[in-house]
Design goal:
Keywords: Acetylation, Amino-acid biosynthesis, NAD, Oxidoreductase, Phosphoprotein, Serine biosynthesis. The protein is built from 19 helices and 24 strands. With about 575 residues, it is an alpha/beta fold. It starts with a strand and ends with a strand. The structure holds nicotinamide-adenine-dinucleotide and 3-phosphoglyceric acid.
Length: about 575
Amino acid sequence: MAPSAVDAAPSHPARPRILVPEKVSPDGLALLTPHFDVDNTTGLSADEIISKIPNYHGLIVRSETKVTAEVLQAGKKLKVVARAGVGVDNIDVPAATAQGIIVVNSPAGNIVAAAEHTVALLLATARNVGRADGTLKEGKWERSKLVGIEVGRKTLGIIGLGKVGLKVARMAKGLRMKVVAVDPYASAEIARQEGVELRPSLADILPEVDFLTIHTPLLATTLDLIGEEELKRMKKTARVLNVARGGVYNEAALLKALDEGWIAAAGLDVFSSEPPAPDSAASKLTKHPKVVATPHLGASTVEAQENVSLDVCTQVLEILRGGLPTSAVNIPIILPEEYRKLEPSVQLVEKMGRLYTQHFVGGKGGMIGGRKFELTYHGELAKMPNTKPLFAALVKGLVASISDSHVNIVNANLIAQQKAISISETFQNETKGLLYANLVTLKAHDNGDGGKEGSQQIIEGYTSDQRAYISKLDRFNANFPPEGTLIILHNYDQPGKIGGVGTVLGQHGINIRFMQVGSLDRGLAPPQEQAGNGKEGDNEALMILGVDGPLSGDVIDGLRKSEGVLDVSLVRL
Ligand SMILES: NC(=O)c1ccc[n+]([C@@H]2O[C@H](COP(=O)([O-])OP(=O)(O)OC[C@H]3O[C@@H](n4cnc5c(N)ncnc54)[C@H](O)[C@@H]3O)[C@@H](O)[C@H]2O)c1
Ligand SMILES: O=C(O)[C@H](O)COP(=O)(O)O
């Protein structure tokens, strides 16, 4: 147990206490020491943290301390857990929420550091810096074995054009690289401004790139994003980089690709377990001659550590004085006093956002960034004095399946701006002729190119008896609860379709909870003006299936191949 630079001020019984069991920059801690007893003791074991924590009101950590449910339960006085960085994978956030403990982080304090570290690995893999240094230290002078390549005029592929990805793109342009990117949710306009070619899919860029770097969060959809199949499609001279999270490249596949010469080299900062378990694929990668590896140093710069420390310590100060933080991971979208009235509609709007992203965007080459969303509240809902929670719920729903941003009422606007999502709200008090008392319409459209009107999509929903329902999806009337796993099929309205779909699902052991056919809303504008996916006609229908069971890509592929099926989406709400 090593006492560190910022030792606890002399304990004062009335002063709240904060435990900092990792190395956190003193700049932020200095904001706290005038008000609280700050105990920056590093090197504590898990048991030692559990025995100490009952006396503390705040806990500040980086990625090494595991803030488990046990730690949180022992922390009877804990009000806040702060993560001096972005990822909260080491914190049991649901357990904190259940105990009313606020978890805060610093979503942007270390993005420059992470981007610069990516460029450091890019150049290190290009010029064999790690191996050259190692052999020289062994007393060898091996110039001819260590000839590198230049990066100028080479192509860098970026997967995930978010905060870090965009910074890497700018730096790579400065190195005179051509930059192509894949991010189905990024703003095409921002990419264009940065001189980045946004491509529709991974398959488009893999054979072309000389370097590949990933900057997505680790989500169910990005786990093993790059496996054997993808690595085999790359150039034998290609180099891959990971400063995001271990697991986005399948580590066993990467090891094989390097061993068998499918690609030339890798620069890795993050691993699926840290430190890598002995004999694991991650551990073999760190020792591999074609790999330059660093022990999760992406955020480890003096400047980034100052930023994240100031960021979270400001929030800890605010929370312990009874205020609201700016980057809470688990602050509710809805405050207790509004809960009863707004909660069902908040749930509805969040589900509408999730449905939008997964049905209209996921895997279809669409974009969220740059789109304009219009939320219209009808009837009773239009009379609510505060619709901020509904606005926040839409942002949360739109980004939930693509980002680990934690949206709440305080940061919703900022996150919408960062993702180039524009949302306007319209209030229609008129109740006459309204089928449902709490109806919400979500319209999404872009400006199109060349001055033409762009595409538009509609989702409409309502609440009844505290439950949410979707009443319109694109050009189709429907009435289904947005819950669980849904398969949505766009098909020709012909006899026999239902049987065909049932056969495919039956073959895969998928249980159908409910099934509904949505019919064309003939009151809407003619199909050619609705610009959905370009396949519109007036003999089409939408089939919505609520399903249970393991759903693999094969099931969706099987359905896509069924006769008369125009499109299929898998939506998890
Ligand atoms: N190594 C380090 O020390 C370090 C430091 C900072 C951040 N990080 C990590 O870097 C990653 C990126 O951070 P950020 O702040 O830029 O996040 P961000 O949320 O700003 O950006 C993530 C981007 O990934 C995109 N995306 C999501 N799913 C995708 C998919 N399937 N295909 C393509 N794009 C997809 C999103 O649309 C978004 O634009 C995170 O995993 C973060 O934890 C690591
Ligand atoms: O999530 C993060 O902020 C980065 O991965 C950095 O983690 P660290 O604070 O442990 O360096």
